[in-house]
Amino acid sequence: MTRLTLILAAGIVLALILAISFGESPLSAVQFAQAFTDPASGPGEVLWAVRAPRAVTALLVGAALGLSGAVMQGLLRNPLADPGVLGVSAVAALGAASAIVLGAAVLPGAVEASALTGAGLAGGLLILFSSRVRSPEALILFGVALSSFAGAATALIFNLSPSPIASAEVMSWLLGSVQNRSWIDVLWVAPTLAMSAGLSMLAAPGLKMLSLGEETAQTSGLPMARLRLLALLAAALATGAAVAVAGVIGFVGLAAPHLVRAAVRGDPARLLVPAALAGGLMLVGADLLARITPTDQELKLGVFTALVGAPLFALIAWRAAREWRL
Question: What's this model's pTM, rounded to 2 decimal places?
Answer without folding.
Answer: 0.90
